[in-house]
What does this fold into?
Amino acid sequence: MAQDPQIKLRKVGVGFLLTFCLFFFLGSFKNPILFELRRAEIGAFFKMDKKELDQKVTSGEKHDKTKKVADSTETAQKQTPVKVAKGATPVDTPEGVERVLLLGDSQLEGLRSPVSAYCDANGHVLVATLIYYGSSTKQWGSSDTLDYYLDLYKPSVVLFAIGLNELFVNDFDQRALYMRKIIKTFNAHNVRYSWIGPAAWTKDKGIIAVMQKEVGSHFFASHEIQMERSADGRHPSKSAAKLWFDQVAVSLTEKGVIDMSKKVDALPKLKFTRTILMNVK
It folds into this structure.
């Protein structure tokens, strides 16, 4: 007996419907899995990409011996790229002339003018001043910033003024490690240096004693000098900064770091110097 065509058609329709429902049901499980796999692959790609970038930034990878791809500073326990400031270019000097590089925190605002004048008066060249606002031994000792600029400017002498932002810290063991890293970098570049301690406006919690211990004879005890303060009550005034560096210059000469024996009497006007400004983010 032949089957009714309508019944046969209904069976075929139900078959298609069941097949569709089956694929739809399976698809509801399958699509999220595929999506998650794709997300994982994309995530892994960006993770790898960032890892490679961090390696380049951390190591200061170069295209050649004198040009680095990126500089970095340590912030919140991670490396953050910092663009090299405009004007950060090598400086040529006559053979035998001392190349002085001035580095540090905001204290350099007052120091850079007398340092420049003393360099001129004594036949040296201030190749650059790098004012790293808000910085401390933490930033200088946990990034490639110092190594980058020593490599770029190739100084024979470094004047490093630091510590004003650390008067109230108490993680002395960690700070000592930063200081050792900084000193190690100076030594690796074979530079003579003076570590100019903070011109403290108030009593510190012990960081200056740590500096004195770690830095040794290279340390200049700025906190022992009575200084007039600028409007903010913290930084030395311009005239005080001049008197401050008068004493630093005597120390530099006596210790054989660099000859600054020819004193600058008048308060110098700030002349053009290559100055690089950076901020802790």
